[in-house]
Amino acid sequence: MVTIQNGELKMKIRKVIAVGLFAFGGGMLRYLVNSGWGVLGILVCNLIGSFLLALLTYTVIERKLVANWLSLGLGTGLIGALTTFSTFAATTIQLWQSHPLAAGLYFIVSSGGGLAMALLGAWLGRRLGRD
């Protein structure tokens, strides 16, 4: 049997609420960008999200500059909802059915670009995080 102390329960609830509220914002932002830019919007959200998560990790989360509930809200909630693997996969399949070359290019740019943006964010985060 698992027991939860009152303070621990409050922290778990705070984390769940933070992730939910930030995810609402990230999901709405992704929807707005996607509705305006279509496939390019999904790509932009995923690339920017890769950069922001790495930057946030190395400037704020790793150095514990904000409360745990806030870093979970920003990283898992906001950026997790802004970026989405399921949309990436579905878009790649949709493109493949009508434009296989475009699907391959989208896959390569999304994967390679996401990795490059994460590396850039980590590099910048480490530089900014130096004391």
The residue ranges in which pLDDT falls below 50 over 5 or more consecutive positions are: none
Structural class: mainly alpha
Ends apart, CA distance between termini: 44 Å
Oligomer: single chain
What does the overall shape look like?
Answer: globular
Helicity range of the residues?
over 70%
Number of helices: 5
> How many strand elements?
0
Whole-number average pLDDT? 89
**Roughly what fraction of the amino acids lie in strands?**
under 5%
How do the helices and strands follow one another from N- to C-terminus?
Answer: HHHHH
Radius of gyration: 17 Å
| Structural domain count | 1
Main sheet attributes: strand count, strand direction, barrel closure: none
Task: Summarize the structure in short.
With 131 residues, the protein is mainly alpha-helical. Helices cover 86% and strands 0% of the residues. It has helices at residues 6-37, 39-61, 68-82, 85-98, 100-128.
Give a structural overview.
The longest helix has 32 residues, at 6-37. The protein has one domain (10-128). The chain contains five helices and no strands. The protein is globular and about 55 Å long. The protein has 131 residues and is an all-alpha fold. It starts with 5 loop residues before the first helix and ends with a helix. The chain crosses the membrane at residues 16-33, 39-61, 73-97, 103-125. It holds the Pfam family CRCB. Belongs to the fluoride channel Fluc/FEX (TC 1.A.43) family. It catalyses: fluoride(in) = fluoride(out).
